[in-house]
Amino acid sequence: MKDAVSRFSVLSLTDDVEWIASEYIRYGAVPEGYLEDAYHIAIAVINEMDYRLSWNFKHIVRRKTRDIVRMANTLNNLRQIEIMTPAELL
After folding, report:
1. CA quadruple 85, 76, 18, 68: dihedral positive or negative?
2. pLDDT tens for residues 14-32?
3. 66 occurs within a structural domain
4. Does residue 18 form part of some domain?
5. Would residue 34 count as lying in a domain?
6. Total structural domains in the chain?
7. Does a structural domain hold residue 1?
């Protein structure tokens, strides 16, 4: 397992990530006290991932978050991302 994980890229927390994460919070996609959850989505968006998989039903995998992230990304000319559980991907 360590060998497999050692080949993964580590994605950085950049100014762009911080900016769009703050937009997600400002629009109410993620509650203000949960910046890390907004960062998780923002890192995936800024790095042009197709999917953001999570088991976090409280702040990430919910209709409100999906809709607001889609809106914020559209307003800021960013790529759209699918937010879902790993089970939904199958």
Report:
1. negative
2. 999 999 999 999 999 999 9
3. yes
4. yes
5. yes
6. 1
7. no
pLDDT in tens, 41-84: 999 999 999 999 999 999 999 999 999 999 999 999 999 999 99
Please report, as a single letter, which amino acid is at residue 10.
Answer: V
Q: How many residues does the chain have?
A: 90
Neighbouring CB atoms inside 10 A of 51's CB total 13
Per the prediction, the chain carries an average pLDDT of 96
Question: 69-74: long-range contacts (C-beta < 8 A, 24 or more apart)?
Answer: 69/24, 69/29, 69/41, 69/45, 71/27, 72/20, 72/23, 72/24, 72/27, 72/29, 73/20, 73/45
Q: What is the DSSP letter of 84?
A: E
Task: Give me 51's structure tokens.
Answer: 């999917």
Cα–Cα distance between 4 and 44 in angstroms, integer? 20
